[in-house]
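Input (Transmembrane(S)protein):
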Amino acid sequence: MAKNNNNNSNKKKKIIAGSVTAIAVVAAAGAYLLYGTEGGKKKRKKIRSWSLRAKADVLDRIENLKEVNENLYNKIVHEVSDKYKKLKQADPEEIAVFVNELKNQWKNIKKSISAAEKSSPKKK
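Output:
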């Protein structure tokens, strides 16, 4: 029984790690667009600090979950974006783009979760 609980715990940790990895990949791609391209300087001016904090909020909430699915992920994205809609410095159009970008990342997160599940030990 204890071994089964350890396997479940390890599986959950791998799933969460996969989700975190997917979000880190997105962050790296964003960093490249902001710093690795000629137009990055202009783009950096448009990016607000709220979006970085919002992504961190989403990540924190995902890390605290036992299971992650698309509906729950989208719910978290919306709840976090609703919080930032109340800020004066957050442009509603930027928030809409932010929500779209994060929702579009679900496919990458799902792939990471699937890979983590496949690499976890099988139950006997």
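The helical segments are 2-35, 40-46, 49-63, 70-85, 92-104, 106-119.
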